Each structure stands twice: as structure tokens, then as C-alpha cells.
Amino acid sequence: MNLNKNKAMAGPDVAALAADLSRAVELTMSAGAAQSDRLRAYQACESFKETSPLCAEAGLYLAAGTHHSLISRHFGLQLMEHTVKYRWTQISQQEKIFIKVCRYL
């Protein structure tokens, strides 16, 4: 899974990225998957969380999407929380406004 794509802020890209993340999270939690596959999916999710400029957007998309599993929605909330706690001073003013506005949705 290639979750480290650097993309500009755009709806369709975020949707595709969120779908990839959802699959990775589901694979991580799947008891039937091989340990190596689960580990790779987990590392991809963690890498995305640490490096992606679309962390908050993808997180909101996952958390707000009722078509995603509860596990994926929870991961979306974790992405947003991580952005606020650990990357707030590094993100742009536009991203901060996006997060502040989205908390009321």
C-alpha cells in the first residue's frame, strides 16, 4: 500500500487516500491476515500519520464517513487528534482553520 503520496488538497484524492487507509486499518486488525502483512499495513498507517500533509483531511473523511467501519472511523479521529497534538505548530493557517471549522460538523 502506498500511503505516502504527497498530494495537493483535493476532494477525490482525499477520498482515494482514505479508502487506502481504511483497507490498511482493516488489514491491521484482521486475525486472518499474515503477521507480516499486518505489520506492513500498521507501518504504512503510522508513516502516514507522521508525515502526510493530508492527515487531518483524511482523518475527517474517515471519521465522518458512515460507510466506513467503526475501526476506520476511530482511526480517522486518531489522525485528527495526532495533527492537533503533535503537528499544530507545523501546519498552515488554512489547515488550522479547516480543523476548527470541521469540529462543528
From TrEMBL:
One of its GO terms (biological process) is RNA export from nucleus. One of its GO terms (cellular component) is RNA nuclear export complex. InterPro entries: ARM-like, ARM-type_fold, Importin-beta_N, XPO1/5. One of its GO terms (molecular function) is nuclear export signal receptor activity. Residues 41-100 form the Importin N-terminal domain. Belongs to the exportin family. This is Importin N-terminal domain-containing protein. It comes from Rhamnusium bicolor. The lineage of its organism: Eukaryota, Metazoa, Ecdysozoa, Arthropoda, Hexapoda.
